[in-house]
């Protein structure tokens, strides 16, 4: 993701409009009392303006234009810029209190991937990170990412590395938001999965666009986000309003793991609710993760083939079974390794996927 340079000079002070007003009447040889007479403002009101205790209103700006010859829009702009700068300075002071939070976030990785700009100013950096998450404060971030709804189906990785975990999910959200989809349609998605199953024969640079297209037409955005070192996940599922997101990490890059991960996440969409974030961290205890595992396994290779796969003795037998089942040999080889625990056998039949997005 490429971002444009957004940093400007950030002064550490704010110049009140009253200073400019004071200089203006001095250049005109006018006293504050005379200005009060010319504008019809009370001396007390002008004193409050000159002490920066009262803003220059639109009405006051119009009167100052007639009395000084300086356009009202100048005074209005000056007042607006001053109030904006005061708000920024106040925000910077508040942000300083949250600098420690930056240690939780994979700042260097977000910078390398183009989500934030390089800066040594911690307050500006913190602001960039908040913008990445789409929140205005660290408190808002915690409300979203540490809420019970998120925690319900999340991985222990959220406990040990919450910043890294949330960053990877957020990258997927941003990518998925850019993918135009139809509203989710369960029937269309079920049919799409049968078509997608046949894409397993193709290379990544060929099937990626078709995979995304078929899913988008059924209301599912497929986001491919390279793994983060501290996030040991294969994928995740989350609902984004009217569409679902399938997020895949490309972890391992073997075609068997990729397709199992994809159909695992598809299983969550079809089998489970819309309120939770589902994480594929290969949990052996969570019943919904087990259900999604079974769905993925059966849609790729029905259980009735397991005994034949377990008994396979040659690459040719793996290829014949793959043709019969209707999936690529790499997926059958992966199932053989899982069933027999012989992880090096037929390993050369499993292609490594080469991703443009990785």
Structure in a nutshell:
This protein has 358 residues and is mainly alpha-helical.
Number of strands: 4
Tell me about the biggest sheet? 4 strands, mixed
Give the oligomer, counting copies of the same chain as homo and different chains as hetero. single chain
Question: How many DSSP helices?
Answer: 18
Described by the principal axes of the CA atoms, the overall outline is elongated
Radius of gyration of CA atoms, rounded to a whole number: 30 Å
Strand content: 5-15%
Structure notes:
This protein has 358 residues and is mostly helical. The protein has three domains: 17-96, lambda repressor-like DNA-binding domains (434 Repressor (Amino-terminal Domain)); 99-145, no CATH class; 173-349, no CATH class. Helices cover 55% and strands 6% of the residues. It contains 18 helices and four strands. The chain has helices at 17-27, 32-39, 43-50, 58-68, 72-96, 107-112, 122-133, 138-145, 148-151, 157-160, 162-177, 186-197, 204-217, 255-271, 287-300, 306-310, 315-325, 329-340, and strands spanning 220-224, 235-240, 243-248, 278-280. The chain has a four-stranded mixed β-sheet with strand order 1-3-2-4, with helices on both faces. Strand 2 and strand 3 form a beta hairpin. Helix 4 (58-68) packs across helix 5 (72-96) and helix 14 packs across helix 15. The longest helix has 25 residues, at 72-96. It starts with 16 loop residues before the first helix and ends in an 18-residue tail after the last helix.
């Amino acid at each position: 993701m490429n971002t444009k340079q957004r940093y400007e000079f950030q002064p550490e002070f704010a110049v009140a409009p009253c200073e400019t007003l004071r200089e203006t009447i001095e250049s005109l040889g006018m006293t504050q009392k005379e200005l009060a007479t010319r504008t019809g403002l009370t001396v007390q009101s002008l004193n409050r303006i000159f002490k920066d205790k009262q803003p220059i209103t639109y009405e006051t700006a119009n009167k100052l234009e007639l009395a000084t010859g300086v356009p009202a829009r100048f005074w209005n702009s000056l007042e607006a810029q001053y109030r904006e700068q005061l708000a920024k300075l106040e925000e910077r002071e508040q942000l300083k209190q949250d600098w420690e939070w930056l240690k939780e976030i994979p700042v260097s990785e977000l910078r390398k991937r183009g989500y934030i700009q390089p800066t040594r100013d911690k307050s500006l950096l913190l602001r960039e990170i908040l913008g990445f998450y789409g929140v205005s404060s660290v408190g808002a971030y915690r409300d979203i990412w540490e809420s019970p709804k998120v925690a319900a189906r999340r991985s222990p990785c959220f406990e040990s590395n919450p910043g890294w975990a949330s960053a990877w999910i957020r990258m997927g959200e941003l990518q998925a938001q850019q993918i135009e989809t139809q509203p989710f349609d369960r029937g269309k998605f079920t049919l799409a999965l049968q078509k997608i199953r046949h894409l397993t024969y193709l290379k990544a640079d060929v099937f990626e666009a078709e995979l995304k297209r078929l899913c988008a037409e059924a209301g599912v955005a497929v986001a491919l986000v390279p793994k983060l070192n501290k996030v040991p996940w294969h994928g995740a599922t989350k609902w984004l309003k009217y569409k679902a997101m399938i997020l895949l990490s490309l972890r391992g890059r073997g075609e068997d793991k990729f397709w199992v991960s994809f159909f695992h996440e598809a299983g969550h969409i079809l089998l489970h609710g819309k309120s939770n974030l589902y994480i594929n961290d290969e949990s052996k205890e969570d019943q919904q993760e087990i259900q999604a595992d079974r769905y993925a396994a059966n849609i790729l290779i029905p259980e009735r083939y397991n005994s034949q796969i377990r008994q396979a003795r040659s690459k040719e037998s793996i290829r014949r079974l793959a043709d019969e089942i209707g999936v690529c040999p790499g997926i059958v080889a992966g199932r053989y390794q899982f069933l027999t625990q012989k992880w090096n056998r037929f390993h050369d039949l499993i292609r490594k996927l080469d991703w443009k997005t990785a």
